Structures are given as C-alpha cells and as structure tokens.
Amino acid sequence: MTSRHAAAQQAADSGTPSPDSPDSRDALDGPDAPGTPDAPDTSGAPGAQDEEPRVLRGLIGMLSANAASLSANRVLSIALPWFVLTTTGSVGKTGLVAFCQIVPYVVAQALAGPIIDRVGPKRISVAGDLASTVATAAAPLLYLTGNLSFGLLLGLLAVVGAADGPANGAKGLFVPAATRAARVPLERGTGLSTAVERTATTVGPAIAGVVVASFGSLYALWITAFLFGVSALIISTTLSDPVPEPHEMPVEEAEGYFSRLRQGAVFLRDAKLLRSIVGMLAVTNLLDQAFMSVLLPVWAKETGHGAGVIGLVVSVFAATSIVAALVAAGVADRLPRRTVYLIGLTLGGVPRFVAMATGAPLWVVLAVLAVGGLGSGFVNPIVGAVTYELIPTPLLGRVKTMAQAVTWAGIPFGGLLGAGLVTVAGTSGALWIVGGLYLVAIGVPALNREWSGMRKQTVPDTSPGGAEHGKESATGTAPAPGEDAVKEAV
Q1: Nearest 5°: CA angle at 256, between 170 and 272?
Q2: CA 412 to CA 421: how far, in whole Å?
Q3: Could you tell me if residue 459 is left (phi over 0), alpha (psi between -120 and 50 degrees) or otherwise beta?
Q4: What span, in angstroms and rounded, lies between the C-alpha atoms of 324 and 322?
Q5: Residues 73, 227: contact at Cβ < 8 Å?
Q6: How far apart are CA 322 and CA 193, in angstroms?
C-alpha cells in the first residue's frame, strides 16, 4: 500500500476528506473551527428542485410503520410482565420473560445484517412483523384454550425477540432513501424517526396501562399483535428496498454468509469515527440502564417520593425529548454536528445524577430532567445522519445492525452494575460514580481527531449543473465517506 493510499485510508477512517482533496485543510480544522462551518445543504436550490419530483409516500410509510411496531413493543413490555405475574404469582418467572425476549432480539439483530443486505430490508421487515404477530396472538389464544404452559410462553417470546430484532434493524435502512425521495435533509428524517420512537416510548406504556387496568392483560396482548400486523401491512404497501446512490463506490459482494458478516465487522472496526460513536453509546446505554432499573427506584424510595415519582421523572424527560427531536428535524441540518451532539449528550446524561446525588428538591430534579430531555432529543438525529453517511448502501444492513447490537450489548448488565454500586457506595455514592463514568464516556472519545468527521459530507460533483440528487458539491470533489474503508473491507 502506497503512502498516498495510506493517507487516504487514514482520512476515510476519520470521516474527513483526504489530504490531497481541495477541501482537506478546512476538514482537518474540524467543524467548530472559525471559518469552517458544516457544508450547506442546498437541496432547496431552484435548479435541484426541478430534477426529481418530491415523493412523501416512503417517508410517511416508514414513520407510520415504526410508530406501529415500536408501540407494539412498548405495550408488550408492560402487558407481558403483568400477565405472567397475575397468572403465575412468581416474581422470578416475571423477570425471566423479559430476558428470554431481549437476548434473542440482540443476537438475531447482530447476525441478520448479511441476510438483510442479500434479501432486502422490505422482506425481512414484513416477515419479522408477521412472525411477531402470530407468536404474540398465539399466547392469549393458547391461554384461553388451556394449552399455554410457561415453557411454551418463553418459546413464543423468544420467537418474538428473534423476529423483531431483524425487523426493527431492517426498518432503519429505509430512512436515507425515504428522506431523499421526500427532498428533505437527512437530519429531518432521522429527527422525525427519533420523535416517533420517543412518542411510542411515552404513549405505548400509557395505552398498555389503561387497557390492562380496564380490560385485562390478554386484551393488551391482542393489541400488540394487531400493531405488529399493521406495521407489516404498511411496509408491504408503501416502501421498496433502497438502492445505492450514483456517487457511491460499488462494493464487491462477499461470497457466503460468514464472509459477508465479517465484511461488515471489518468495516465497523476500520471506520474509526463510527466505531468511536458505537463504543460511546454502548457505555452510556449501560449506565442509563443502571439508572433506570436500580438507581432511580432506589432514590425514589429512600427520598420518600414513592413509586409515583418514577413515572413522573420518565414522562418529563420523554416529553421534552420529543419536543427537541421535532425541533432537530427542522434545524439540525444547519447546526454544527459535533458541538450539538456532545452538548446534548452531556445535558441528557450528567446533570440528573448530580441533582439526585446532592439531594436537590423534587422540582429541581424535574427541571434538570426537562433540560436533559431537550439535550437528549438532538442526539439521535445527528447520530443517525452521520451513520447513514458513513456506511455505503450495499453494506448498510450488516454494519448498522451489528453497530446497534453492540450499543445494546451492555443493557442486560446495567441492573447488575447499579445494584453492585449501591451495595458498595450507597445510593448517593452510586449516583456520583455513574455520573462521573458518564462524563468520561462522553469526553474521552470526543477528544480524538476523527470526531471532526462529524461535519456534513459532500458528494462528488458529477452532474452537468454541479448538483446530484438535490445536493451541490460545495467544495468540488470530496471522496465518498468511508470509501477506502470499503476497499479494505472487501
């Protein structure tokens, strides 16, 4: 490998143009340096608007399908434990059902990437939702006929997890193509997706609580099956499989499942910016789970606020994060990505631990969480946009699902971490420790040079008018993000 290619490889790994490209000096200065703002999005330019019609069908379908499937998951997360607890009376069995669903979810999603890329996300998403529909509907049906054993219930939940993981991973692959067809910035598509996810997280459990309290947990399971079916119907009628953009470098398809899986793993390993983001999110997700499953309930009990304040805390944070995600959908494409990402993640993660550890009044804690939700709402739209820009379309399935599985890998251990810290250091000490770890997890990776690659990417100027798919090349010809990483991967 020549020194020139080595320099290009290093630049691609960091998400910046190569040193020989015309805009290399601006890119290496980073997105926050004076005089080097993010490349402007000129998708609204008059000449670009006339090239292709604006099609909203895919974007609306993608958001609607996500709303249905995510709501189904949230309803199931409330209805199922209550169903098991009321029918068996066993706390141990109640805890086991969530484990039997989440482990197949993570494992199947991590392994499904090559299949999604080969078969197409549309078929995988529809098949996964239909399998979840059948498995979820089978549980109340078998219970009513007296044929539902606990072992069979665990098997059905494993089917739901193994089907839902790849299906949710596949749905995420529609975002770039649907957003381009709608002629809006990529941050708008990822921002709207985040708003849908946060809304489902807030509304889904509320629906489940009302249905379970009014009609019983069996009805909530029927609603879950119905929502999975609605998602499958929407995907099958409104979306089509994404195709590579003309400016993307062709990727030689590896032969065999394991070769394709390794191809995705190699890309994730060599794309330093993407790897750094995934590692940061894996740690913060672990700490968030420790907070939600142990630290928050213990704090609520010891301060005398009671269980009711737990729901209030979660609702305040979720409500403001929805508002922030909607704002991000409108303005995030005009903001410096790295600055907004780091500030948002810091506000969403660290201050809550400080407020609770210092014994602040409840209204102060809620105010801090409200501000934290506003910061958190900007994180996912930016992460999503950067991820889609760094991963070529032919590798999107295997790389993105593997990255998402890595970010989820620590979640099952979050409760153990929180319980251990409370045992050793007490509630206040555990809150200080987790808050400090959160700050380190954000700050240390962000010091690396590759984080300058979060600035908006440009595409080669190949069209006669200097525009391609509604975007003009602001600096001439910049290499496609991750291009040399793809060469190494194949």
Answers
A1: 60
A2: 16
A3: beta
A4: 5
A5: no
A6: 10
> What is the C-alpha to C-alpha distance for residues 227 and 388, in angstroms, rounded to an integer?
27
Orientation of helix 362-376 relative to helix 308-331, angle to 10°: 30
Name the one residue in this structure whose structure tokens are 């805890």: 95
- Tell me the HSE value of 443 on the side-chain side, using a 13 A CA sphere: 9
**In terms of Cα–Cα distance, which of 374, 381, 406, 373 is closest to 456?**
381
What's the token pair of residue 22?
Answer: 């015309």
Taking the model in full, what pTM does it have?
Answer: 0.69
DSSP 336: -
| Neighbour-count burial of 176, counting CB atoms closer than 10 A to its CB (0-12 exposed, 13-18 middle, 19+ buried) | buried
Of 361, 219, 228, 365, nearest in space to 291 by CA: 365
Q: Amino acid letter at 451?
A: W
Structure tokens at 262: 């390794």
Which helix (H) or strand (E) element contains residue 471? Answer: strand 471-472
Please say whether the beta carbons of 132 and 163 come within 8 A.
yes
10-residue block means of pLDDT along the chain (490 residues)?
Answer: 39 42 35 40 43 81 92 84 79 74 84 86 94 93 89 90 90 87 84 86 79 83 93 92 68 73 84 85 88 82 76 82 85 78 86 90 90 85 81 82 83 81 88 91 77 58 36 34 41
